[in-house]
Amino acid sequence: MKKIILGIITIVVVLFLYGVYTAKSQLSNGVSLFQVAVTYQSMNPVSQYGYRWVMRNDSGMLGAVQKMNESYEKLKSE
How many structural domains are present in the chain? Predict the structure, then answer.
């Protein structure tokens, strides 16, 4: 029973770290908001959590999202 629980925990940790690794590698190579959305949607829920955690803590990505939101609001008001 302990081996099964340990196996499940290991799988969850590996999936989470896959999301973290993917996000960090994309951020270091440069990434568009479109790529972020497509990558996020293609991941399983555990990897999505790790990916989202890294992206939310990156100031460059937050700045890009804010600029996009500002542009969207300008277009919407016209």
Answer: 1
* Residue ranges of the chain with per-residue pLDDT less than 70: none
Q: What is the extent of the structural domain holding 73? A: 2-77
Residue 44 confidence (pLDDT): 94
Q: What is the pTM of this model?
A: 0.77
**CA distance linking residue 19 with residue 39, whole number of Å:** 10
User: What's the rounded Cα separation, in Å, for the pair 21 and 10?
Assistant: 16
**In this structure, how many other beta carbons lie within 10 angstroms of the beta carbon of residue 17?**
13
Q: Check if the beta carbon of residue 65 is closer than 8 Å to that of residue 37.
A: no
Cα separations in angstroms, 32 against 7, 8, 17: 35, 33, 21
